[in-house]
Amino acid sequence: MGTTNQNYIQEENKSRLKSGNACYHSVQNLLSSSLLSKNLKIKLYRNLILSVTLYGCETWSLTLREERRLRVFENMVLRRIFELRRDEVTGEWRKLYNEELNDLYCSTNVFQVIKSRKMRWAGHVARGGGEAYTGLWSGNLSERYHLGDPDVDGKTTIRWSFREWNLEIWTE
């Protein structure tokens, strides 16, 4: 994968995160409202904010920096939903720790959503056959890309995902 292509993907990822951030700011009053239940706020996050943020994520190639940005973004939204906590020792209000957020947010995190969408898209393309199928295997759909690493094709990335999910359905 060339540097130009990687720069384009990074710019696309930044643009989607920027759109998600704008969406978040447009509904942040709802997310901090005491009139709405936590479940409704989570649905608002998953169906509105996350959908805007992850549009087109099926073809993303994430660097560690972009993964971190997505994680920070998700935690920011979840902190708004789950509010502040009173510290048991000092009695002062504090932000929730990441582990506490993970415990409270019982749904799939942003990376699991991205993987799920990639797998669904790969299955769709594979069933379609033709040029799209050939393009899937020649394109770069890698989960992580480090400067100097060899290019990873889509087929390898999807195999890694299958292996990570303990799915032994790949026959090639």
User: Which range does the strand content fall in?
Assistant: under 5%
- Based on secondary structure, the structural category is mainly alpha
Report the count of strand segments: 2
> What's the overall average pLDDT, rounded?
78
Helical coverage, percent range? 55-70%
N-to-C terminal Cα separation, in Å? 23 Å
Please tell me what the overall shape is: elongated
How large is the count of helical segments? 7
Main β-sheet, spatial strand arrangement: 1-2
**Oligomerization status of the protein chains:** single chain
Largest sheet: 2 strands, antiparallel
Radius of gyration: 19 Å
Number of domains: 1
Order of helices and strands: HHHEEHHHH
Low-confidence stretches: 139-148
Explain this structure:
The structure is a single chain. With 172 residues, this protein is mostly helical. The chain has one domain. It is 64% helix and 2% strand. The protein contains seven helices and two strands; from the N terminus they run αααββαααα. It has helices at 3-31, 38-53, 64-82, 98-104, 110-128, 130-138, 154-164; strands at 85-86, 93-94. A hairpin with a 6-residue loop joins strand 1 (85-86) and strand 2. Helix 1 (3-31) runs antiparallel to helix 2 and helix 2 runs antiparallel to helix 3. The longest helix has 29 residues, at 3-31. The two termini are 23 Å apart.
